Amino acid sequence: MNPSPGRDLVVGGFVLAGLLALAWLSFTVGGVDFESGDQLVVRAKFDELGGLKTRAPVVISGVRVGQVSDIVLDDDYRARVTMRLDGRLQLPTDTTASIVTAGLLGDRYVVLQLGGDTKMLASGDEVSFTESAVLLERLLGKLVHDAGGDGTDDAAGGTAGGGEKREATP
Amino acid sequence: MTDAIRALGFLAVRAAADLGSAAAFFADVARCIVSPPLRLRSVIDETWKLGVLSLIVICVCGLTVGMVLGLQGYNTLVRFGATESLGAVVGLSLVRELGPVLTALLATGRAGSATAAEIGSMVASEQLDGLRMMSIDPLDVVVMPKAVAMVLVMPLLSALFIACGVFGGWLVGVRLLGVDGGAYLTSLETSVDFRDDVMSSLIKAVVFGVLVGWVATYRGYTSAPNAAGVSAATTSTVVVGSVAILVFDYFITALWGVTS
């Protein structure tokens, strides 16, 4: 084929579009983040993560301000979560970090509730007030146990077992 | 009875010989790639034929697959009240599997068959023999640019397919069915991991590009020099290429899971 400038332009555009799509996949969707200097790194210890994963969002008043970058088990067997936040944030030292769920079964994320202290957290500091994830199954188990303990309602503890019991009696 | 066993033996020997000559062909083409000249001109021309001309079918299919995923995912997730995870469903299935695999299957049908038919008809019309007579290696001039272009084009097409698919899922999920746009993108971004998902997607696309380029050029190059040979080469390219893509997809997925 003879060289044709018009076609070469389209080929170049195609390669460029493909590379842009690849870059978008890698950087936006895949979340390769360069270590930009303007970041506030804070840590928090939790008793129960309830399925919090790295790259989970960190929000203040519902606005995303950063993400969970690392989760390790600390020396005292509690989960230590490292969060990378927007460097412009000024967080008081009595900020509370809690793990909540999006929807009933959605992903876990971290909510920061700001305190009223005048001293601000510096990068590398630890958030001392934390609220662990609430496990739905533990709540349900407690509910079922409480209901069974009262003896008022058989249905809560025994709908599944009721059928078997009836078969066994005759 | 002995006839049946003899037939089986013949098949086995032929399959082994075919595989061996395909491997030798692969090595020859690889040698042509690394040895100069690079033949950038021909590679660009082939990129036009295999990549740009496949663009429309890739984008339309990506958009449609994304829209179907959005619809199906929404209908399933809405039962659990978890429609904010729609982005994760669409993104993960596209990036991990559907993007590279469907792109490779489409490219086999669109570009692989064309490559096999082109080389096959060159064989049938004795053009490759003409090149050999002028002591020009047809592997270097005809086959190498097509194989290289196929490998280059596949990851780009796959990435465009995924981008179109994510957009299609967004169109149906967010614009049509009313999933929150922020939740769609957030769940997409938090669930898709760079190493586990994007890198494995990229590796798959490159491997599929090698497979399709290999099968298509080999089948065309070794086709019988007549009309039936060209048709058989085209058919076998699509069949062998598609099966190889799906088999390799399983193994890449399994191996990537082991290593990570």
Question: Layout of helices and strands, plus pairs?
Answer:
The complex is a heterodimer of chains A (170) and B (260).
Chain A: H1 5-29, E1 39-46, E2 57-60, E3 63-73, E4 79-86, E5 96-101, E6 108-113, E7 126-127, E8 129-131, H2 136-150, H3 154-168
Parallel strand pairs in A: 1-7, 2-6, 5-8
Antiparallel strand pairs in A: 1-4, 2-3, 3-4, 5-6
Chain B: H1 2-34, H2 40-50, H3 55-77, H4 86-124, H5 127-133, H6 138-176, H7 181-191, H8 194-221, H9 227-259
Helix pairs in contact in B: 1-6, 2-6, 3-4, 3-6, 4-6, 4-7, 4-8, 4-9, 6-8, 8-9
Structural class of chain B: mainly alpha
Tell me what portion of residues of chain B adopts beta-strand conformation.
Answer: under 5%
Beta strands of chain A, count: 8
As residue ranges, the low-confidence spans of chain A are 151-170
Rg measurement of chain A, Å: 26 Å
Indicate the proportion of strand residues of chain A.
25-35%
Estimate the global geometry of chain A from the Cα principal axes.
elongated
> What is the typical, i.e. mean, pLDDT of chain B?
90
Largest sheet of chain A: 8 strands, mixed
- Compressed to H and E, one letter per element, the order of chain A equals HEEEEEEEEHH
Largest sheet of chain B: none
User: Share of helix among residues of chain A?
Assistant: 25-40%
Q: Report the radius of gyration of chain B as a whole number of Å.
A: 21 Å
